[in-house]
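S1.2 Input.
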Amino acid sequence: MKKNSRLSAVLHALMHMAERDAPMTSDDLALCLDTNAVVVRRTMAGLRDAGIVQSGRGHGGGWVFARPLAEISLLDIYHALGEPIVFQIGPATESPGCVVEQSVNRVVGDALKDAEAILMARFAQTRLSDLAADFGAAAKARRALTDTG
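S1.3 Output.
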């Protein structure tokens, strides 16, 4: 089963924007993500509607952040993407009248709700500035390894 990687892809694009600290066109972001600029525009439009990014037209235009990274949570991004399904597993629906299936669905459903609540809490606590700091530290460590090698 294919995983939904939209959240990761969007975060990837946003970190390229943060690193550049200048407007990035949909074509620029498409190159970073190895995708089509139309896909980028469609996705970024949802982020624009949520007040996360804004776009400028013409020469020197492109996508920029609408507010500081420290004010944007992963939960904000998740909501802007339309709240994609977090888990691929779910309740069975083959025998809705079966008491065994009902019990299984109840137990599995409760566990999934708990896990999703924990994930959403983590998303709410994590800011894009946290992700940018992590990326910056990793990039610095990589440069240090290549400079000494």
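S1.4 Remarks. The CA atoms of residues 27 and 118 lie 36 Å apart.
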